[in-house]
Amino acid sequence: MSGVITVGVDGSEHGKAAADWAAAEAARRGMELRLVHAWVWQPLDLPVTADTEAQQRWAETLLRETRARVTARWPGVPVTARLLPADPVPALVAEATEADMLVLGSRGHGALIGYLIGSTALHVLRQARGPVVLVRSDGDPADGRKEPVAGRGEPVGGRGQPVAGPAAPEEVLVGVPGAEEEAGAVLEFAFAAAAARGASLRAVRAWSIPPVFAWSPASMRLADEAGGLEPLERKRLADVLQPWRERHPQVEVVEHVEVGSAAQVLLSACERAALLVVGRHASGPHAPQRIGHVAHAALHHAPCPVAVVPQP
Q1: Which of 59, 69, 166, 284 is in the most buried spot, having the most CB atoms within 10 Å?
Q2: Which string of DSSP letters, residue by residue, matches 73-117?
């Protein structure tokens, strides 16, 4: 781990929310905050043509003002700022490999761009080899609900540390992958996030009744020994969580097993979540770049920041 949280800023309200969230997270974890803006000259679609010097001055001013704002609010956090002379997607993907996490606003300039397949955030998300957290601005909750979602109004302590308020969310919510070998990176991120907040961790496992042709004598024996399908799923979840509970004994864990699709079960459990953590299969050099239906649903509908963690 590098001890660095990197956030991409672009001047939008969602970018500001991402910077604020990343600064608060850096304060919690005792990490460095790195502000980046990826910029290459291109003509702007404006009545008055802006030259390359004007665009560069705008980008430099954006970084300077963002740094001043987060430093004022979180004075204990070391902050650096870099202007990246490259196209945004490859530049941010490269940044994600060097940091503990990359934080982005979940939308760009405009009401719908964050939901479009061609948006910068989604392109970065598909290619990043490290965790990416997507944050919406206050006043832009998913599904039209009137509640803040970026910082949740966390008060700030004397050393820049967020302190719990009476209405602060109390949980980190994590979707636990079905295969044990896929869960490690997701659970590592989720337990660390919960420990940094002093929050409980709700570990969610969704399951469904398998079709008849999927049954085998071995699977039937396992279900019988566990006392049924649901107890079997509860045992599998407990077994996956056990090593991580031993590494993070200070984190209270709530085990949540429910019948249904993973996306539906996770979204229904989001009410008290400060952060939702989901996995996605890392794309190989020749594999299609997909984020998966669970991450896709979370990014569209979760009312809190969403961390997407690559898994094997």
Answers
A1: 59
A2: H-TTS-EEEEEE-S-HHHHHHHHHHHSSEEEEES--SSSSGGGST
In a domain, 160, yes or no: no
- CATH number, residue 90: 3.40.50.620
| Separation CA 33–CA 263 (nearest Å) | 31
- The residues, any chain, with a CB within 8 Å of residue 238's CB and separated by 6 or more, are 255
168, with CB counted inside 10 A (0-12, 13-18, 19+), is middle
Residue-wise pLDDT for 152-204, tens only, equals 334 344 334 444 444 455 799 999 987 777 889 999 999 999 999 999 999 99
Q: The pTM is what?
A: 0.81
- Judgement on whether residues 195 and 310 belong to the same structural domain of the protein: yes
Task: Single out the residue in 123, 151, 179 at which a domain terminates.
Answer: 151
Look up residue 191 and give its two tokens. Answer: 């337990």
| 146 in the same domain as 243 | no
The mean pLDDT of the chain is 80
Q: Kindly state whether residues 206 and 307 are assigned to the same domain.
A: yes
- Read off the pLDDT of residues 207-260 as tens digits, 9 standing for 90 and up: 876 554 445 565 555 555 555 567 888 888 999 999 999 999 999 999 999 988
Question: Between helices 120-127 and 88-98, what is the axis angle to 10°?
Answer: 40
d(CA 10, CA 35): 10
The secondary element (H helix, E strand) that includes residue 121 is helix 120-127
